[in-house]
Specification:
By secondary structure, this protein is of the alpha+beta class. It has one domain. 37% of the residues lie in helices and 21% in strands. The chain has six helices and six strands; from the N terminus they run βααββαββααβα. The strands form two sheets. It has a four-stranded antiparallel β-sheet, covered by helices on one side. The longest helix has 19 residues. 24% of the residues are buried.
Length: 169
């Protein structure tokens, strides 16, 4: 246990969903320039034909997008052949003035899929992100600054969440 990629926001904590899903969403939010917008992880079979995670990537930095894309690549992640990043354009600029481009992480549901499979894949992606973050040669080679990533102490975070779940703040 130690420092892990995690940034809590109300957009994530308001969801009532599996902890593995929340961990992955908070890890996305911890990457530079990436902002979580929404997801259907809490109900993946709700007419979307798969799992969708909506992200906004700041135009001024692409480091977080590069990091996430590398972690999801089929060469570096065993489930990379099932997940993909898609682009979608809207009509209204983002609040920071960025063009209305959203990135969607999509994983089509396949015959025999169940929630446990999706949970395991989300946990696997989170673990792969941590492996990449802690791979000094990877981070150094691509001039990625670890100080731009949000980190928290995993033990302290888990303790606080457990206390909150018990109604003790």
């Amino acid at each position: 246990m130690g420092l892990i990629l995690r940034k809590e926001t109300a957009d994530i904590t308001r969801y009532k969903m599996n902890p593995e899903y929340k961990n992955l969403l908070m890890a996305f939010q911890a990457l530079p320039g990436i902002h979580f917008i929404g997801t259907n992880l809490d109900k993946p079979k709700s007419g979307w034909n798969g799992v969708l995670i909506f992200l906004h990537i700041e135009e001024c930095t692409q480091e977080g997008l590069f990091f996430l894309t590398r972690c999801m690549d089929r060469r570096y992640w065993e489930h990379g052949n099932k997940w993909r990043i898609e682009l979608e354009v809207g009509d209204n600029e983002h609040l920071n003035g960025d063009r209305p481009i959203n990135y969607n992480l999509f994983r089509a549901l396949q015959e025999g899929d169940n929630e446990q499979i999706i949970i395991d894949e989300c946990k696997s992606l989170f673990d792969n992100m941590m492996d990449h973050f802690n791979h000094d040669n990877f981070m150094t080679h691509f001039n990625m600054n670890k100080e731009e990533y949000h980190l928290v102490d995993e033990v302290a975070f888990d303790r606080r969440v457990k206390l909150e779940n018990l109604g003790i703040s």
